[in-house]
Design goal:
This protein is an alpha/beta fold and 578 residues long. The chain is 35% helix and 20% strand. The protein has 20 helices and 23 strands. The strands form six sheets. It has a seven-stranded mixed beta sheet, with helices on both faces. It has a six-stranded parallel beta sheet with strand order 15-14-16-17-19-18, sandwiched between helices. The chain is globular.
Length: 578
Amino acid sequence: MNKQIMLGNEAIARGAYEAGVKVSSAYPGTPSTEISEILAKYDEVYTEWAPNEKVALEVAIGASVAGVRSLACMKHVGLNVASDPLYTFAYTGVTGGSVIVVADDPGLASSQNEQDTRMIARSAHIPVLEPSDSEEAKEFVKYGYELSEKYDTPVILRTTTKLAHSQSTVNLCDRTEVADKEYTRQVGKYVMMPASAIGRHVVVEERENRMAEDCSEFPVNRWEKGSGKIGFITSGIAYQYVKEACPEASVLKLGLVNPLPRKLIEEFAKSVETLYIFEELEPVFEEQIRSWGIACKGKELFTKQGEYSANMLGKVLYGTDVAVFDKADAPNRPPILCPGCPHRSVFSVLNKLKIHAAGDIGCYTLGAVAPLGVIDTTICMGASISALHGMEKARGKEFLKNWVAVIGDSTFLHTGVNSLINMVYNKATGTVMILDNRTTGMTGHQEHSATGKTLKGEATYAIDLAELCRAIGVPRVLEINSFDIAALESAIKESVNGDTLTVIIAKAPCALLKGQKFPNKCVADPEKCKKCGMCLKIGCPALTKQADGTVKIDETMCNGCGLCKSYCKFGAINVVEK
């Protein structure tokens, strides 16, 4: 048996491989993205990027129905997109085992909200496993398939940002090749028309009750006996904080977090004088445990917001930090678009024209902050187009003379295309800008259905965004180089003042894409600089204002896009070969 240090996400991928998974589908979303990227390296597993999480889960369901073990991966907000098939999957159950990995994001490291997957799972009547380190992450995936097939249910493996991106030692095992289960036509099980669903709902309740009865004996729930004075019920990464801050305490570490092992919890509660429930985000454990008449302390001491820590626990219990470190002030580092980012060029034009933008999820959210300051809304994937449509229907065409919708290429294919279909169908006249940088940028440059490559790097058909827009009936579609600010300005002015639905596809690859070459750099001439500051308004981090008011360009950061030169009216900036 080999040992290896792995990230939580890497361990999850390894667990799927060792469990004999044959089909995996996902949409990239931090902090879950690396699971699929790593799993793609195992040739025994078919892996793919789906257009969105709903499709990914439906692919996994299809593979399960066909009789093989399947996997779907997403972040917490992706589960919202996949909730339609999720709830029905609980009714149908499985043929081949199926695990859904959902990565929650306490502390909002890269998300638009905090939400607790355990609450969704309770509503959907789906069991949830939650590991506390990389070794458990691998083993819990494998155990998830055992539970899935034993209890005829999909199983959610819940992780969090800290677990996904932390490292610990993992014991590597061989892959178990699981024989395909024979497909048998079962209309009452898999065709969820009302008559079938009524019967399956009863099955779901019986299954959940049986699992709740059995789970007190599950090996993933662990009672660690310590002092009888205080005890903790906890799970996931929060368990690590309990062990660091209170090593002497008794701990009931829950690996199965839905349903809860009531018998085990009641026995544990009787063994300690004071019981603490230490769980990140919502009081999922606490509310159920209190409802059983068990006295405990929880959210009145610990917050519902953000990530927990050993220090938080130490301050509540002892009034002091557990970890001692130098709290030297770190320099402020606000988020900012990269040098050479094509989004900066588009936003600079919108800023100049004093245009508001309904925004979407992606790097372009950074256009909300100074000095560009053009993004006014960010709701969820695909919402920029729908929101713009709602604005027009609420306030009329005149209102949209100061508005556009902006969305990335991957996000457009995720759910934006549906919103654009709605605009066409309902006779909208707004301006939609697809910022096509040829990748899924913010999650780390994953391929999508318009890049021409699969998750495994194989060549495939690349969807033509312009032709797609025309095919669904958009009357006016323009393709413009993102750095051609004159053409962008002209097109935006004409579009927002017109009465025709227009899609402007601003095209230029992400500056960080692998293989991108930058033969040029920009150089500032202090003798010609008039200190007007126009070039600084684009917010490029490669440009800095000197003490004498002139501008200097850091050649180690500059990608030579020439945007700053476009805004200098005095010829003080030149583009030269590196």
